[in-house]
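User: Fold both of these, please.

Assistant: Here is the first one.
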Amino acid sequence: MRNFLWVLITWSFVMASSPHIETAIAQEKDNFIWNAGVASVNITPKLPMWMAGYGSRNRPGDEVVQPIHAKALAIEDKNGKIAVIVTLDILGIPRIVRDAVEEQVKSQFGVSPSYLMMNASHTHSGPEIRAIETFFGKENPQRTERVNLYRDNLEKKIVKVIEEAFSKMEPAKIGYAKGSAGFAINRRENYLLADDDIRKGLRPNTEGPVDHDVPILEVTSIDGSLVAVLFGYAAHATTIGGYAFHGDYAGFAQHHIEEFNPGAVALFMAGAGGDQNPHPRRNMVDGLSGYDLADMHGRTLALAVEAARNAHPILIEARLESILEEVQLEYLPAPGREELQRDAESSNRTVRENAQVLLGWLDRDGQLPIQYSYPVQVMHFGDELTLVALASEVVVDYSLRLKRELSGQNVWVASYSNDFLGYIPSHRIWLEGGYEGGDSMTFSSTTLYRGAAHPNIWAPTIEREIIKKVHELDGRIQYRQ
């Protein structure tokens, strides 16, 4: 009798409390419900059009092998915080483009600049969006006009695709997973043994550091159908040269993922691949063209994404935090006027043009800059994922280090984000020198997107300052949570 009464009392208690349990369970489920929308727009230029990525090109591109796109993923957490991630099949994102889009997105959609992340795939077969008339040695008003027109239209298309992503927002779940693809290879063969030129060491180094991770964010509707997949990889998009437009391996990967998943949108985000190349590439394999190899690498990457998706992604709580700030990166002391005047008469075109730009800057402002304002962005998705977005051509050492040092179970490092200003070496590579270590600063400075030149190579403190800033922003987000 006593046992019967105990069972009866217990059952009565459970029945009385079950509505509260059901409510708690429902609330817990709601914690993982986001709002999300995704959209894509074709940004393939009208032909002929100047191309970016390879300085040896001396005429506009005149063929399209594969359309290129701008894509936007808009997400809203349970507290109403909204972030927008924009991916682009272009070489890099000029600061002037980032600033223009940022202003429009803030005014039209109320999105804080800290919650806008823009990433370029770094395809070397996309359109030129720079209007630096000293590039190629002579002023070219027709080229400048065409490039400026394309850039203006690109900004409008980016804002439009963001607007479309907002219009498609609906309840969704977001999961994180990680695959692997092995075609990226370190390209810094022992620089001391390489040919003594500006590109010394740009050959495969099978012993060099790599990052073969393929991180993904899977966005699914409440019924489980795939809405979008954001994925990343760390390698230059340089499988192919020539004068045809395409997204290289990253473009092929997006295409194949969307083939596998009709109705879904695939967005590629470039990782810290400043010293990484796809391998093999160009015409390295008998019987296979560069396009064949790009398609092969794209399929490999697409299959890695599908493998990650089928490995039970971690469901992410609908909680979002993001900070975007700048850190001041120091240059080594700039050369004096006399040295610049000598360089301005050099037989080397790159040295000559670089010096001419710097002399013009010196005449205009009376001094050359001593530092550069470099954007760093850290975004937290719940407690499950930390996404770090660094500007320009960051080498793989940064990704490997941040994955070791940052707290949390999953860290994703993207580069080519929010600005484009040349190579960002680690301290190790700065000491080694070579193309990514500093030699390219003169080469890339005449194409600097702010219309100016780098006065010198970076100071040896560059890695320390960037890593310190990432830790600072990550710590502030942890504190706020």
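And the second sequence with its predicted structure:
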Amino acid sequence: MPGMDGNETARQIRELSLGHMPHLIMVTAYGRDEVTQNAGNTGIEDVLSKPVGASMLFDTVVRMLGGVGDRPRTASEAPTDTAERLAAIKGARILLVEDNALNQEVATELLQDAGFVVDLAANGQVALDKVRAAAYDIVLMDMQMPVMDGVTATQEIRKEARFRDLPVVAMTANAMRSDRDRCMAAGMNDHVAKPIEPEDLWKALLKWIPPRHTLAVAATPQSAAPDDLPSGIDGLDVTNGLRRLLGKKPLYLSLLRMFIAGQQSATADLEKALANDDWDSAERIAHTLKGSSSSIGATVVQQLAHGLETAIREHQPRAAINESLDALRHPLASLIAQLEQQLPPLA
């Protein structure tokens, strides 16, 4: 902060003769090592990285205030009975509109494993053609795609009276209120944030797909999975990545390999697009990297890619964009190198 930063503020608070000293938690952006290194010396008890998730904020505050401590989360635990209630809509036909290959893999695997029939469209124009050719119970629509984006595709769908009652749910990493308003204005029914949280996706499906069966089917047991997952990689939250996949380790390993293949050349591709003043391509590359890293739990790369995407979208000075790109370069290369070293060989 200007004038007095958080560390200095904490130090001066500690020097006050207060009858009750408040707990101090630092909230800072990723990569601010010079800030966090001094946090412990000024009485700061914990550090949270922006953007702060609700769950992490809650757990930290509860721990600071002496309440119930963090309960270890297992990757495959189901928070509610929502997954079991999906039996009532099992067999529904879903059109998944998504251009990111890694996100396609995640959503398709989750939906098919839950008993849905999934059709895939890589952009809004393909989605429009498929909706006209076949009957679907719901459309899961990404917003940012090449050829035709999700907002335009939804507007085109709503122009035809026969699709008036077809549920269209936005699936997007853009969580700003303005983005949600654009979705609703285009005729979408609901919004599910990415990276995909299975619980949120199931709730949306249950809300918009009419029941087809009575509830009588128990959840299918998970099959055995390999334990050779990567560990100790800075900036990779394996537990959170697995949780979003309902503990499916083979799928998670597959996504990690897809991430390596798809993002190895991301910084080089960004440099080329920026050199050619191709701002749209540069923004799309950064957006794809942000979404892919988020899906596997690569929180550091996700935040750096988000900052770069924002800088490109706002057409900030090239010096600022180059700084964001340079900040991303080493963490991304290090992540890919460590994944390549730790991932088990394919059979």
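Confidence is low (pLDDT under 50) at residues 69-79, 216-226.
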